[in-house]
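Quick question, first post here. What does this chain look like in 3D?
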Amino acid sequence: MTRPVEPDPLSPGGRASRRPRRLRPGDRVAVVCPAGPVEAERLRAGCAVLADLGLEVVPGAHVLDGRGPGYLAGTDRDRARDLEDAWRDPDIDAIVCARGGYGAARILDLLCWESMAAVEPKVFLGSSDVTSLHAAFAARLGVVTLFGPMPATAGFGAVDGVPPDAATLAHLRATLFSPEDAMELGSAEARSLVAGRARGVTTGGTLSLVACSLGCPEASSAGGAIVLFEDIGEQPYRIDRLLTQLLRSGWFAGVAGIATGSWMDCGPIEQIEAVLRDRLAPLGVPVLTGLDFGHGRRQLTMPLGVEADLDADAGTLTLTSAALR
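> Answer (accepted):
Ran it through. Tokens below.
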């Protein structure tokens, strides 16, 4: 039965966000590697978890090729072809990126955006280096995407005797299958850096990737948006540098609010929060920190391109409508 299409919110820049349909048991999910290479055993374990969710997993044709530089999961053209083919295939209901690493930005100019825009949107899930693709999907296709856990990363599949993180998988399952049950995004450690409430459309991802997109065709400002930031391996002074670059470029002009996630291997959290407060408090908008999204073992699935209410005092980010229809 066809679900009725509900009105969609506006994405940053005023573009209407098209919401993919929610998933159902038996749906076919393509797993692709648009960036770095994967370990075969870790990918197998992650794909088994997707299968346990009731999904039929379809690996991309080049997902384990390993051709090209050692830090890429195959050639640029092959990685782009896997992603584009999956998006255009009417028998594929969702696309899940196996992991991040590096290389997603290298395929942006190899994708045929015109043909991809001509098909119905579908779920697109990934994080870290996939931030570049989230920005491009928003700018080129105007679709809601999901910044969340990936099957070939820690905390997803059972590898080396470590089971998947139950809370991560529970929130992912709810977001994919019953998104109306995953509209309040909060964490026990969430706390206010700058008090207040705001409403806007979610955007952002991994901080260093957002900063790297400045000047690129898919870059858009944070005007009217609730910005989501996290990162890994960036020391406090480098976080300062990235934020300063975004501030000086005018990227933050008109931002509604900011929420940050994990800062894995970025140094003492007290130093990081001091940098965030110093750089972001002068914007005069609510700033919430400590949400469970990003590179930590526990990861919320964060929709991008969806209107949300940020309540820094309560430590919550609440979607005003479900991310998937």
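The chain is about 25% helix and 20% strand.
The chain has two domains: 28-181, 184-319.
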